[in-house]
Amino acid sequence: MSRTIQVEHHAGWARIRIVRPEKRNALDRATRLALGAAIADFGPSTRAVVLTGTDTSFCAGLDLKERAVEVAAGNSDTAGEEAIALNVAIRAHRAIFIAGVNGLALGGGMTLVNTCDLAIAAEDAAFGTPEIGFGAYASMAGPTARLLLNRKRAGWLLLTGERISAATAFDWGLVNEVIPGTDLEARCAELAARIAVFDPVALTAIKTSLDAVPGAATNWQQALVYGQGVNAEIRGASAGSRDEPPSLPHPSRQE
Fold it and tell me: Is residue 253, in this structure, part of any structural domain at all?
């Protein structure tokens, strides 16, 4: 395991902490790969995962200095591919991921917040996509923010490069709660422990449904039929396979 992350195991849930405070918890290759490995290692007994940072930063995005050095040396630029794989792993995992946003969440760090299922932010946290200042597009935070925000709000982040406060992020729907920073770890632990007692099949099914609707369900009937199908799959799971995710119906199925 990389020295740049810490993994704590609790009853039914876990906490992953990014530990690169001197780099504002930016994701270098070692950290990206370590996070992916830690996530892959969580078994069915881990039903919730808190992802957080260290000191005053949640995550300042990808480690651009490392990336520049590697490109200058003629090495393949795989940072984007690795970051995509990390975020897809979070989204695809059966556990519910909670972002404990303890400070700055910039670029790829904001992407992690967007990717997590729930997010709680400290009052002094801030969010932004500074890439426009480098003449670039926020290639991961931009699309994921646009999936969550209306065009004007996503445009504000992407076109101005200005950071928004935790209060604004809450108002826009990027985070679920804003609390004093001194209470953040306890609140995340409380929420993770609460989620960890719920039925694992139901948790996974509901997590999957959050992307399936409205992503594929295009009208009310499809959405309602899909919801009935999800519950049918949950009820149909045998007692001996409750740790296995159900085979969910597609929202467009009319059955």
Answer: no
Q: How far apart are CA 176 and CA 157, in angstroms?
A: 19
Residues 190 and 209 reside in one and the same domain? no
Phi, psi torsion values for 189, nearest 5 degrees: -65, -40
Nearest to 143 by CA among 173, 177, 107: 107
95 vs 42: CA distance, rounded Å: 8
CA nearest 111: which of 53, 37, 176, 61?
Answer: 61
For residue range 45-72, list pLDDT tens digits in order: 999 999 999 999 999 999 988 888 887 8
20 lies in the same domain as 60: yes
* Residue 84 binned pLDDT confidence (cut-offs 50, 70, 90): very high
Q: Is 184 exposed, middle or buried (0-12, 13-18, 19+ CB in 10 A)?
A: buried
Gap between the Cα atoms of 161 and 104, Å rounded: 14
Total tally of structural domains belonging to the chain: 2
**C-alpha 165: how far from chain center:** 19
CA distance 253 to 41: 34
- Rounded to a whole number of angstroms, the CA Rg of the chain reads 19
pLDDT in tens, 181-195: 999 999 999 999 999
How confident is the model at residue 239, as a pLDDT?
45
